[in-house]
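Quick one, T. Sequence first:
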Amino acid sequence: MAFNHNDHYHRLLLRQVPSTAQRGLDVGCGTGLFARRLAARGLDVDAVDPSEEVIAAAPAIDGVRFVQADITAMPLPKGHYDFISCLASLHHMPFGTVSGLREALAPGGVLAVLGCYRESTWSDHLVSAAAVPVNAAARLALSGRRATSPVQAPVATASMTLDEVRSQAADLLPGAGIRRLLFWRYLLVHRN
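Structure tokens:
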């Protein structure tokens, strides 16, 4: 389908990139659309995904190094990245992975997570109900367009509620801002 919830939020995520950013890490990069957008802004990007299939399908581009790896086992250089993104990938791994990502941030660096959460409260269900007709309209409006890639990254169901994400982020990413977004996502932003 042409309408992708993660792609819809690319502009919001790009607004989180520090103006002086030079080095980026895109965790769970899939076929690299967001990594390419970071490179277009002048960042040198390491794009990491555990799926060999999606990395193989990622088109080569200057400024992006695609790596097939499990980020939870990958050694990351401390204080190296000016911007780290996780687009619908954090729920595929232990939430504690953010500690290693935080340590990999350079001073002034930003970790931006576009995350998925498990609905558990009346407000979760209310936002979900509001998203359904908007989602249907967006899919209909874009129905004539082709999908961005024929290869799709693996999908997992989120196990953590938004309250659980907030609680763990308070411990592991003090000062991080978290806000619920319309299309079954949240935005977490941590500035080092």
